[in-house]
């Protein structure tokens, strides 16, 4: 288990910023302690520094996982989020999706029908006003 390199950190934070914006800093500096991201077997884990210190006693080949898996790096060095990160990202999410059809209608629609559309909150526009095209 090792810290992320600058390129890996930039790639991961760019992906996270698409979902939670500038709230990334709230993931690291939390009121209940300092948290960090570590890489182990191409997977990025999110854990408290207290847990990190305890995990250093276990050798790398014996360590399966520690903390919460946020995602993994592919062979082409792209970052993919895992569903296990959802609990940590949900409180800081930008906007939300709304279903345009009911479940019964979704079963009968053709493949080109819009089932879900994006509905952002008013703060989404204000937060991203400089970057909107």
Q: Given the C-alpha coordinates, what overall shape results? A: globular
How is the main sheet built?
A: 6 strands, antiparallel
Average pLDDT rating: 83
Please state the structural category: alpha+beta
Indicate the radius of gyration in whole angstroms. 18 Å
Number of helices: 6
| Percent helix range | 25-40%
According to DSSP, the number of beta strands is: 8
Head-to-tail CA distance between termini: 40 Å
Q: Would you mind describing this structure in some detail?
A:
This protein is of the alpha+beta class and 133 residues long. The chain has helices at residues 6-20, 24-28, 49-55, 86-89, 103-108, 122-127; strands spanning 2-3, 29-30, 33-40, 43-48, 68-73, 79-81, 96-99, 116-119. Strands 1, 2, 3, 4, 5 and 6 form a six-stranded antiparallel sheet that branches. The longest helix has 15 residues, at 6-20. It is globular, with a radius of gyration of 18 Å.
Summed up:
This protein has 133 residues and is α+β, with helices and mostly antiparallel strands. It is built from 6 helices and 8 strands.
Keywords:
six-stranded antiparallel β-sheet, alpha+beta, 133 residues, globular, two-stranded antiparallel ribbon, 6 helices, 8 strands, 32% helix
């Amino acid at each position: 288990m090792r810290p992320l390199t600058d390129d890996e950190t930039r790639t991961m934070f760019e992906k996270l910023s698409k979902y939670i914006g500038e709230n990334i800093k709230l993931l690291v500096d939390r009121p209940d302690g300092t948290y960090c991201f570590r890489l182990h077997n191409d997977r990025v884990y999110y854990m408290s520094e207290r847990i990190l210190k305890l995990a250093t006693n276990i050798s790398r080949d014996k360590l399966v996982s520690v903390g919460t898996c946020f995602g993994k790096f592919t062979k082409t060095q792209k970052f993919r989020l895992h569903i296990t990160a959802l609990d940590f990202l949900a409180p800081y999410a930008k906007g939300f999706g709304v279903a345009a059809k009911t479940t019964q209608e979704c079963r009968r629609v053709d493949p080109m029908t819009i089932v879900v559309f994006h509905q952002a909150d008013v703060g989404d526009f204000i937060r991203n006003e400089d970057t909107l095209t």
